[in-house]
């Protein structure tokens, strides 16, 4: 069995040699344990936070130990009554090709013919994040204008589509012409390519002349600053992610215009998807049939093989993915 370990804590953008691929011998499963071969590994921006020493809502990754993350695999051997050979399971035991764990660390995938890797993306934690942010936190209403940053990513593509289902006007922001075109196929009313837009303020003024009621924030920095200038009175901001600063070594990046929050009585609320798992069943009850009917769509960027995981992870911060970033194992 092989696993990826963190060799040292990255400074700034992680580098491939911050990681190492280790061969390990797996023990025989004991009573209550299951042997699983992973097929799909999730690649997520939040993992960057756990690579730093700083305390957060999840403890830092240990050095010289396997990294963790979402994964989907197949049971190869089971000494747990709840699992049998061939079961498809999800776990947090990613960054490795196989493992032995207690059955309690595994979740069986819901019964559906949809591709299993959807449960790492649109039907998994990122999709749930979009749903919770829009419905539980922002309570987005028909006719409202929503701005979504990192709109072409795993969370963003679901936020765009779920908002269109509510009947909102959706403006996305993303980093390439191809991604702009893709977001339009998902129903976005307008899309900003922030890399090619020298004056974000003027562009938001043009696209949202009546103001933005809800901003689903994944990025921070200049985008948040520009959005604050164009929020509507009593607008709501779901602070979901600030990826623009995940690789900064502590230097702050704004916004410098927080006075807008006072002037417009903006409500900013942080979102942590783990607070909302009691609604995961309600989310799936809407989203699984919608995918089966083709009313929701998902895109993925797949790299092949465990050894490609560090590069796939680094790629998140370079905008290499459209939709969910995944690693596929043989
Ligand atoms: P994505 O699939 O959106 O991948 C990250 C994307 O962010 C990239 O593709 C890139 O797209 C964009 N990006 C990267 N660096 C920058 C930058 N410096 N400036 C602007 N855009 C950048 O990842 P996820 O969907 O998994 O996550 C999206 C956000 O949601 C992240 O901030 C993440 O931390 C957050 N999150 C929060 C959760 C919570 O519970 N609070 C749960 C899950 C995710 P582009 O081409 O547009 O630049």
UniProtKB/TrEMBL annotation:
Q: Which InterPro entries match?
A: ADH-like_C, ADH_N_2, ER, GroES-like_sf, MDR_fam, NAD(P)-bd_dom_sf
Q: Which SUPFAM superfamilies match?
A: GroES-like, NAD(P)-binding Rossmann-fold domains
Q: Which domain of life is it from?
A: Bacteria
Q: Per the record's keyword annotation, is Oxidoreductase included, yes or no?
A: yes
The GO molecular function terms of this record are: oxidoreductase activity, acting on the CH-CH group of donors, NAD or NADP as acceptor
Claim: Transmembrane is one of the keywords in the record: no
Which residue ranges run through the membrane?
A: none
For this protein, the record's CDD domains field holds:
PGDH
Residue ranges annotated for the Enoyl reductase (ER) domain, each copy included: 12-327
User: Keywords in UniProt for this one?
Assistant: Oxidoreductase
This protein is called: NADP-dependent oxidoreductase
